[in-house]
Design goal:
mainly alpha
């Protein structure tokens, strides 16, 4: 079994487990468990695919922004939204996501990586994480409520739709992560063969 297949399975199983456990098993999904299921992709790319420095920088920052976001959401039942601990975690996720957006813009300006699939997938993950999986999600929610409110029934429907959108985005992020793994693995395999041929 190829390395990319194993990594893709890990990402797929982690995403499915995250959804099933959070919806049907745990009433309060443990933040640490959530992080353990989300982080493998970032660790895999950082450790096994070091070819592009800019991609590694984005992945490295993402490890901490994802950790901050999952801990923040996990601690919301324990601490108030505007408590010091929640705000600290929120700021790490928010400013880390902004920094990643800058890195993603730099990625688009560079010659390598040449793969459009790789560039598009990375930018999609970075932008989505900023809007929906960082401290900004609270500002976005308040903005939508202010725009569509104040009818409580409308707000309830709006929050339900937003939750469905978030679940859908998690699925699309999983696909983007698998695409990134496959593209990077293909390139590693190609350059590995080219190097071995030159050495011969």
């Amino acid at each position: 079994m190829k390395k990319r297949t194993i990594f893709s399975l890990i990402i797929f199983i982690g995403t499915i487990l995250q959804f099933v456990l959070s919806q049907f098993v745990f009433e309060d999904f443990p933040a640490v468990l959530s992080y353990i299921l989300i982080v493998p992709f970032y660790v895999i790319v950082y450790v096994y695919y070091p070819r592009y420095k800019i991609v590694r920088y984005i992945i490295f920052v993402s490890i901490f922004t994802v950790m901050a976001y999952t801990l923040m959401m996990g601690y919301l039942d324990t601490f108030p939204l505007y408590s010091r601990k929640i705000r600290l975690l929120g700021m790490v996720s928010f400013f880390g996501s902004i920094f990643n957006n800058i890195l993603a813009f730099i990625l688009l300006l560079q010659v390598e990586p040449k793969s459009r699939w790789l560039r598009t997938a990375i930018v999609f993950i970075v932008v989505t994480n900023y809007f929906f999986f960082s401290y900004y999600i609270f500002s976005l929610t308040n903005l939508l409520i202010a725009f569509f409110g104040p009818d409580e029934q409308v707000i309830d429907q709006l929050l339900l739709i937003l939750q469905i959108v978030i679940y859908a985005l998690q699925f699309f992020i999983m696909i983007a992560q698998i695409i990134i793994i496959h593209v990077l693995d293909d390139e590693e395999e190609y350059y590995g063969k080219a190097t071995s041929q030159l050495n011969e």
